[in-house]
Write a structure and sequence with these properties.
The structure holds 2 protein chains of 2 kinds. By secondary structure, chain A is an all-alpha fold. Chain A contains 17 helices and 2 strands. A two-stranded antiparallel sheet of chain A has the order 1-2. By secondary structure, chain B is mainly alpha-helical. Classes of the chains: A mainly alpha, B mainly alpha.
Chain lengths: 439, 420
């Protein structure tokens, strides 16, 4: 065969030629530019528009940022420095205001010698969150997460440690009784027993026992009143507590709304629809104006606690709707499979339904959390010093900083952006981590 | 596990109320009912006790007493001699004004940004992503306050527009001398009719007959246009060639309205600087402008995300099929992708409209006299009727929300995929 070939075919190439490089206009940066920026008249027009937008933004913002002043005691001095250094028409940011007032932005009117307490609570927040958020963290740390809320409230508001120890003891006792009773009596009776026990403990045991213990071993730190709270300390306290409270409440509401029991269902539907139909401001006003009418006379309620409760209830209604969507997206077969395995309602929810439904609803839940955190700025309207309106108003009414507007809003906005953007990135990470299908 | 037939023979025991699934749900419901009833009666008891202690009662009669305060933006007649109910109406109209214009502008902005974000242009895509992420992750209150502060503190005072012989005025009006932005408000031209038809009194407020006539003519144009388009479709069915209709549509929309405006003697009254301030034209309050701009750009970012998600939800095969049929990119978008994407977009769009409407209550930050500013603000403080005013306020917001969601649900059902 090859001999015949050798005679009939004048030339046969025996090796492959290496592929030649594409033409220069079809490779590398040129190709990328042509494909992504200049592929047609429309695309070129859009690119030009984009460049114009960039130019307008940067020629306004860049000099302003580059001419920043960090050392000054008033806005007038800032402007003087900018005019002296960069010419009379130059504009410059006056970050000296932030430098002078940042403790107020972070802590409000919290006593300055006690700043370590909120700082410590904030640092411990990450320790407590780590085992909840990331799977690589040692599991026993979850016990710390369970105790953390009480620890944080004690650090923030101060007072006797025994009160909180008694609260923890009550929760532990309730849990132990529930675990013992659930084996003999079933979930419903044991649950009822636990709730009654917890209520009785908090009404009759916490105050007297902690008072007695206080006399024996005094262990108290300086109490701080709620009106001293402000700035991001306030936002984060309200935001984190309400986020932590609204998820379980939202799950319960969603289950209630999908329940077969008409009474439970109509109560859940009524609550969710009413709360979702009114603005948060009216709910906060209700907390500050009307709650006194619905409580027994002379019962006074801390304003931050009232706001936290209202924000939690408000967010729970939104989260309930998100989770209901996740529940509705589950195929019917999952419920039937759980039933056919002989699981009761709570077992099925805990082991089969909720893990899947919550996974589907992660993006919605996290965006509800982000909305809730952004909405903590509205507490300014019930006379609390949130960083955005409350503290900025205080700063702007100071004679030294009168007329400053870009810097405080850019500063507060940047911090809100970092926190909210971080939450949304985490939700994307979680979605990827929990992805079980292979597509 | 006992068999069902055996169970029915068992005598009823008390423990079956908890352990038997046939009775359990009734037990739970009755317990819940009792608990809820107890909680309600406790709250009502507290309420009655507290009201009695303060010497108050629940009475909505305050609505019909003299309000005694002025409102700086009123769409219908109002003086400080009017009743609190009338103030409520003014506030409600102001809320609805911001909400409706805001929804319309946010939709336009959101759709444009959402589609640009999907564009093949890398630069524009990135810029739109930055816009969406920045505005979604920062509280809307910040934008309201920032826009308001800039409008009131950076813009020139009215006397900067004063024209002195031989000197250039410090500030200039925009758009050929028709719009002036001062630190007191934005002055825009006012549409006037020199041969006006007058007003019709509805009892509660006056309605301009000119406006009604314009709406009637526009509605007529709409139906006429539909007839033309339908005729074109019939022709296309029969012959395969679609006759050009665009110039007919333009004529039908433009000609009658222009003729009507001419007949009514339509002209614009420009704001003119006289004495110490602008005379003539309409002064738009900065509180309104700030609220509108902030709500529009904030909600626009969310709508852009909804639009992007909706377009991306349509499978790639639809686009390819349209290209295979020879449709150009524009018509593929208009005839194939958007009608399907709309079904995915509308539910989140409804909730964004609801959010925008509820966020108008942030008007409190810039003292815009919306429903919360009149009924939940000055009226509440003057009369001391917290309970009644807050109940009414929440009730009205609830009704607005329910109306928006039901209207949009009707629309959603109309465009929904009809499955067998």
């Amino acid at each position: 065969m090859s001999e015949i070939h050798a005679q009939t075919v004048p030339f046969v190439r025996e090796t492959m030629l290496p592929p030649s490089a594409p033409p220069r206009s079809e490779a590398g940066a040129v190709r990328w530019l042509r494909d992504n920026l200049f592929s047609g008249p429309m695309n070129i027009a859009l690119t030009v528009l984009g460049l114009m937008i960039l130019y307008v933004v940067f020629q306004a913002v860049l000099p302003w940022l580059l001419h920043s002043v960090w050392n000054a005691t008033s806005l007038g001095e800032c402007r003087e420095i900018v005019a002296r250094t960069w010419g009379p028409d130059a504009s410059g940011a006056c970050w000296a205001m932030i430098r002078e007032r940042w403790p107020q932005y972070l802590f409000g009117f919290y006593p300055a010698d006690l700043y370590w307490r909120p700082t410590l609570a904030f640092a411990l927040l990450f320790v407590a969150l780590a085992p909840v958020l990331f799977s690589g963290v040692p599991r026993p740390l979850l016990w710390f997460s369970a105790v953390y809320p009480m620890l944080a409230f004690w650090l923030l508001w101060g007072g006797s440690v025994w009160w909180w120890v008694m609260v923890i003891a009550g929760l532990a006792l309730t849990y132990a009784v529930f675990r013992l009773a659930v084996l003999r009596l079933g979930a419903i009776v044991a649950g009822t027993l636990a709730v009654v026990l917890l209520a009785a403990w908090s009404v009759y045991a916490v105050a007297p026992l902690s008072g007695r213990l206080d006399q024996v071993i005094p262990a108290a730190i300086t109490p701080v009143a709620s009106d001293r709270f402000g700035g991001f300390l306030l936002s984060i306290t309200i935001g984190v507590t309400a986020i932590g409270g609204s998820l379980p409440l939202g799950i319960l509401l969603a289950l209630g709304r999908r329940s077969d029991m008409p009474l439970v269902k109509s109560l859940a539907v009524g609550f969710i629809e009413v709360v979702r139909g009114v603005p948060l401001i009216t709910v906060l006003f209700t907390a500050s104006l009307l709650l006194q009418y619905f409580l027994p006379p002379r019962v006074q309620f801390d304003i931050i606690l009232r706001v936290i409760i209202m924000a939690t209830l408000f967010a729970a209604a939104y989260i309930a709707e998100v989770i209901r969507g996740g529940l509705a997206a589950l195929p019917r077969g999952q419920y039937e499979a759980a039933d056919s395995l002989g699981m009761d309602y709570w077992q099925a929810q805990r082991l089969i339904i909720m893990p899947q439904a919550l996974k589907i609803s992660i993006p919605g839940i996290v965006s509800s959390f982000i909305g809730l955190f952004k909405d903590t700025t509205l507490v300014a309207f019930v006379a609390l010093n949130d960083p955005l309106k409350g503290i900025t108003q205080i700063v702007r009414s100071d004679i030294n900083w009168k007329g400053i507007y870009w810097e405080p809003y850019v500063f507060v906005g940047a911090i809100f952006f970092l926190i909210c953007f971080g939450m949304s990135r985490y939700s994307m990470y979680l979605e990827r981590r929990l992805k079980r299908d292979h597509r | 596990m006992a068999l069902a037939s055996e169970q029915t023979r068992d005598a009823f025991r008390l423990s079956m109320l908890v352990y038997d699934t046939r009775f359990r749900s009734w037990t739970i419901q009755i317990v819940v009912l009792v608990l809820v009833a107890l909680a309600f009666s406790w709250l009502v008891h507290n309420l009655v006790t507290n009201l009695a202690a303060k010497g108050k009662d629940i009475d909505f009669g305050f609505l019909w007493t003299r309000a005694g305060y002025d409102i700086n933006q009123r769409l219908v007649a109002y003086t400080n001699d009017s009743t609190h109910a009338r103030a409520l109406l003014i506030g409600l109209l102001n809320t609805l004004l911001v909400a409706s214009i805001g929804c319309a502008l946010a939709t336009i902005l959101g759709v444009v940004v959402g589609i640009l974000r999907l564009s093949r242009n890398w630069l524009i895509g990135r810029l739109m992503t930055v816009y969406v992420e920045v505005f979604r992750n920062i509280p809307v209150l910040l934008w309201i306050l920032l826009v308001y502060v800039i409008l009131t503190e950076v813009t020139p005072p009215p006397n900067a527009f004063k024209v002195v012989e031989g000197k250039e005025p410090l500030a200039r009006m925009w758009l050929d001398g028709s719009v002036a932005v001062t630190n007191r408000g934005t002055n825009i031209p006012e549409p006037l009719f020199s041969r006006s038809l007058g007003n019709i009194d509805l009892g509660i407020f006056l309605v301009s007959l000119d406006l009604l006539a314009i709406i009637a003519v526009l509605a007529g144009s709409f139906f006429l246009n539909r007839l033309v388009v339908r005729a074109a479709a019939v022709r296309q069915e029969a012959t395969g060639i679609r006759p050009a209709t665009w110039w007919k549509s333009v004529l039908i929309w433009v000609l009658p309205v222009v003729a009507l405006l001419y007949a009514l003697g339509f002209h614009l009254a420009y704001p003119v600087f006289k004495g110490f301030n602008f005379q003539g034209g309409i002064q738009v309050l900065h509180s309104f402008t700030a609220l509108l701009i902030a709500l529009t750009i904030y909600t626009g970012a969310f709508i852009a995300e909804a639009v992007r998600a909706g377009v991306q939800a349509i499978s790639r095969g639809q686009t390819e099929a349209a290209y295979a049929l020879g449709l150009p990119a524009g018509r593929t978008m208009r005839l194939v992708i958007l009608p399907q994407a709309l079904r995915v977009i509308i539910p989140p769009l409804i909730s964004q409209y609801l959010n925008l409407t509820k966020n108008t209550s942030l008007a409190i930050a810039v003292s815009y006299m919306d429903l919360r500013g009149t009924l939940g603000g000055i009226t509440l403080n003057q009369t001391g009727r917290e309970l009644e005013a807050m109940l009414l306020l929440m009730g009205i917001y609830l009704v607005i929300s329910l109306i928006i969601s039901s209207v949009m649900n009707i629309y959603n059902n109309a465009v929904r995929l009809k499955e067998r």
